[in-house]
Amino acid sequence: MRIDGPWFKDEQGRTLLLRGVNLGGSSKVPYPDGATHVRQGFYDHRPVSFVGRPFPLAEADEHLARLRAWGFTFLRLVITWEAIEHAGPGLYDQDYLDYLYEVVRRAGEHGLELFIDPHQDAWSRMSGGDGAPGWTFEAVGLDVTRFSDTGAAIVHAIHGDPLPSMIWPTNYNKLAAATLFTLFFGGHDFAPRTRIDGEPAQEFLQRHYLNAIKQVVRRLKGLPHVVGYDTMNEPSPGYIGWPDLNTHGGLLCLGESPTPFQAMLLGAGFPQQVEVWHMGLTGLRRRGWRLVNPGGARAWQEGHECIWRENGVWDLAGDGTPCLLRPDHFARVGDRAVDFVHDYLRPFLHRFAAEVRAVDPEAILFLEAPPRQLPPHWDPTAVPNVVHAAHWYDGLTLITKRFFPFLGLDFDTNRFILGRKRVQRSFAAQLARLKAQARERMGGIPTFIGEFGIPFDLQGGRAYRNGDFSLQAQAMDRSFRALEANLLSGTLWNYTADNDNCRGDQWNGEDLSIFSRDQQTDPDDINSGGRALEAVVRPYARKVAGEPLEMSFDYRRRIFQFTFRHDPAVQAPTEIFVPRLHYPDGGQVWVSDGEYERDEAAQVLLYRHSLDREVHRLSLCRRQG
């Protein structure tokens, strides 16, 4: 696989449209009993193991064969920094690296290409997400056992059931995650007094992260189906760029929402009345206030002071009253206004590229920016072979876990959209904006949608009781159609091998897996266990002898249409995936010219266009009669 302008190309010059999944949702937690609701042993984070994520090796061929049969050829393989280096700084889990190599090797045997995703959400499991080892908090003086009492994080295992839906992203704004992200990306500027074993905090954290990822790169180098590496899933600025520490902001206000200054004071043992926010159909609304940390617990280890106090952000007045000294501490450096993406993320991305390519010079790099922020300006001639790896979701469905056929939300404009056709056009337009970002800011590199998908526990999990996943199919189809309208490649979030109807993907109450053991009634049927497969498993142009122009699929009528402009230099045929699920008899094919042949076993149609016209069309439908 290689990059050619805005497209992925194969060795024969064909344009690739990549379809795949994130594998898998439960790779965020240790195996076998690390699901986020499990409290026992939660704080004992060093001796854990991720061997068995995304699945035990005994199940590997089952799951990989299923994904290939469903037409997927590409994986975003989820790993975490914690999985590699959980035992302590510089202590790498060789058993996990061996296991990971074997999973990756077997994926290649099943014809699957992949890239590695060093995943994180809200920094770490200890701060209500996943990603970084627990010892990263200890290294800067934080005590993970006190995060719940001090409001430094809301953690499923400590909060208990039910964890409020979509509450976990609020951890990005809370003390624990925001502090570590700020140190990771901007410690030199915003916490110059904070050092770890004599080393600046930013350098310590970035060095360990990069060295951990390089352990994986070294182990997988030479496997030809490993095409590259994501830089970091959904990086967060932490407090960097926050204009006033007395104001709310960040990714999402929901539940108890302290301002950054309140979060610092809570961590230092000062009780605070904080705002409480609620999500309704009309959006976010403040419901009132709540006293947090009434017992005056501290989030810092004994003998450690709040690092933001040590770095002059706040202090105590003579009467012991906390005073905010620098409300704009994270918004300006000297006379310069801070731009997180330009000043802090982009240098990290350059460093990541240099470090990874020192080990694997051919690796494609999938660059991520924070959600709902523009990506950095990029010069692909200076650092080539890169991809704009954006994420996009049907936001209203994701947050409310309800499907409204006539209602959608545009997160970029915070506007609701009414009407089926308008919603579909809006979704396509939202993805078109992501493509435009790569064209206008990043030198015309490809855009790849690393995550999209829908929650399957819609309407309170009704489908688990009545077996009717038609609403999920409708919701999933809307997202796929938006990708198809923009001729984008992407990987669904997600496929979780141990998903169940009770705990979903085993992480923070999320349930987005397209497979579940609880829907598997016939282990001998490769489709059994699949959810909303009529929308998930769909025909698409996999390899195109030229430039794709239009592609669409109507899953109800089972009509697929595709148009492309051929490249005279390409001799190989165009390859269309024709799923047996929709076309058990191969379907009825119409082509504008040329000839085609079927490979029923591979569920593929090979189309060889003629040379007497530039643009070619193909359609596929059910056989009549």
Overall mean pLDDT: 96
The rounded Rg comes to 25 Å
Shape: globular
- Percent strand equals 15-25%
Report on the biggest sheet. Answer: 8 strands, parallel, barrel
Q: Which residue ranges are poorly predicted, with pLDDT under 50 across at least 5 consecutive positions? A: none
Number of DSSP E strands: 30
The first-to-last residue Cα distance is: 42 Å
Helix content: 25-40%
Helix/strand/pairing class, anyone?
A: alpha/beta
Number of helices: 16
Strand order of the largest sheet: 4-5-6-9-17-18-21-22
Give a written overview of the molecule:
It is a single chain. This protein is α/β, with parallel strands linked by helices and 625 residues long. It contains 16 helices and 30 strands. The strands form eight sheets. It has an eight-stranded parallel barrel with strand order 4-5-6-9-17-18-21-22, surrounded by four helices. A seven-stranded antiparallel beta sheet has the order 1-2-3-23-26-29-28, with no helix packed on it. A hairpin with a 5-residue loop joins strand 2 (7-9) and strand 3. It is globular and about 85 Å long. The two termini are 42 Å apart. The mean pLDDT is 96.
Give a short synopsis of this structure:
The chain is of the alpha/beta class. It has 16 helices and 30 strands.
Key descriptive features of the protein:
625 residues, alpha/beta, eight-stranded parallel beta barrel, seven-stranded antiparallel beta sheet
